[in-house]
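Hey team,

Sharing the Signal transduction histidine kinase internal region domain-containing protein run so nobody has to redo it. Sequence (686 residues) first:
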Amino acid sequence: MVAPLLKDKQQLLRASVVISAVLFIPVYFLFPDFSKYQLNLESEVNSNSNTHICFEDLNMDGNYEKVIFDKSRDPLVLVETGGKVLFQWNFVGKFILNEFYYFADYNHNGQKEIYVLTYRNDSIFVHISEGLANEIIAHEIFISTFGRYAGKPDFSISGFTTEDLNNDGTDELIISLMCGFSYTTRKICIYDFIQNQLHVSPVSGVAIQNGLFLYDINNDGVEEVFGDIAAHGNTNKTYPYSDLYCWLQVFNIKSGYIFNPVKLGNYPAIAQIRPFSHDGQNLIAVFYNYYGNNNDSTFIALYNPKGKLVKKRIIPYEPSFRNNIIFLHYPENNPNRLLLYKKNGVIETYDSNLDLVSSKESLPSTGKVKSIDIDNDGEKEHILFNDSNGEIIVTRNNFSFPVALKTDLISEGFSFAMSGKQLISFTQKNKTYTYEYKKNLIYPFRFILILSAWLGILLAVFSIAKLFQYLANRRYEAEKSIAEMQITAIENQLNPHFTLNVLNSIGSLYESHEVKKAQYYFGKYSKLLRQSLFMSGQIAVTIHDELEFVKNYLELEKLRMDNSFEYSIKGNSGLPEVRIPKMLIYTFAENAVKHGLKHFKGNGKLIIEFLKQKKHLEITISDNGVGRGKAGQYSLMSTGKGLEIINKTLKLYSELEAVNITYKITDLYCEAGSPAGTKVTINVPI
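Structure output:
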């Protein structure tokens, strides 16, 4: 019998909290992205290997134009909006291979120019136009010559931007060039639009390889130009600032280098150079990453605006430092901190004493870092490219809140469109995808959503538990009622009067020396008692067990009534394993004997028969007794509780087990119309 469950409300609530917490774990992973920032697909257009597509808000009205760079034959640029071509621009030569275009408003007239880099023969040119105004501002401004290696152009653009470096109200165009074995194209080129003059850094065996930074280091009112410098060992020792060594170089448009370049160490190495501020003083932070076999050490150092060493900290070399996959970052919102971003995604923070103050984990990145103010909040975001899996990662200025985007890119072939909608575009598999970088609208409500979801699960679990408790208690009460009624029924039958009569009958057999018969009936009586005890904790039994109990009872009744009736059981072989309420067949058999056969003058017969139908088992208990009408005359003292107990038992059993057992009592008559017994038909669903 099932006991009442979880009666204590506090216990029920505690159990519900635990269960809901466990259920919430898998549900949590079904939540939408709760990152503070998102990359949402803005557009997807067809392209090909000869076409590069990007989007830019050229007139800064909040709507972006589509800019198509066609490299199929002679290069050309198309500007489209709403499917209409606004501007077509043709070139002689070829687009350079990597960052060959840029958008900026150098004259601050509210119209962005398109800057395009091409090469022809041995020369590099820049072209400038206002696409929406259909105006060519400059055509083929010479930037530099270049060399070739293995018959191919040997140069790349490592930086491309505009900034007013001389405070004349108009931006200058700043381009940093890098090359391989033909080491002559390593320089910084600055074009002054007002003076129509090209400023070029001194001849050098090293140049900015990555990251173009502009910062007024020496407080002279002019921003200096600097970036990451690598030592590859392509030049000889006599070449100026040979790349057999790694150098600290800071260039100024007016004065050239603001101090004589500082030799940092030997090749192979890369120096990442960033501005740093401490106690109102501008400094230069350097991460020198040496990955050769000599005795040089990897270090972080601070230099003053005159190139003098202020502080230095040796850092144990790690394989993850190699190939520019560690990034020295000077966070704009925390000027006394330096961040080192490692290949495995670990970010180390150093203070102005170059002491390690914290370490945290972010997303791993094996490629270069591009820093650009994507969302126009005054701080540059960082865009990292993971060469190992083509993943693009966008983080905030301090590398917090990373957003990852899976792509099939095998190189950093993506571009940026700065407009009212902050866009990142890249091309893969003949399609150009454009993603918008923006704040996640549900981020501020993430805790409310998570809490609401958990409370919803808790409420559901608690409600189900309460329902289960109600059903369990209801079942318990029903089982208790059935058990009490069944006990009452068996007590009515196995009362002292019945027991005394049975024992007297058995005693008479002993007196007449019918020992075997006495032992037989005593065995039946003991089995009856034993079965009563064994089945006392059950409300339902198998038909087989019920029949065994009934047969023992009928044998004893035959003894008590001097064998005045016979009984037979038919169709009981191969019965299905069906459970029925205990005492069901017994009650009707007992009524047949007690009320029908007891007062019958003649050979009484009791037949119990089983008939298996398609959907139910039919059980009949019939007798040839005096019938119900005459039996009532002999049973004036009977309480009639038997059928009342059966009715209540079947009703409760139906509620408990969803098994609707029914019965029907039929009075039997002979041909002359006289009562000829009673038949009970029980239908048990199977």
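Residues 59 and 110 are 6 Å apart (CA to CA).

Ping me if you want the raw files.
A.
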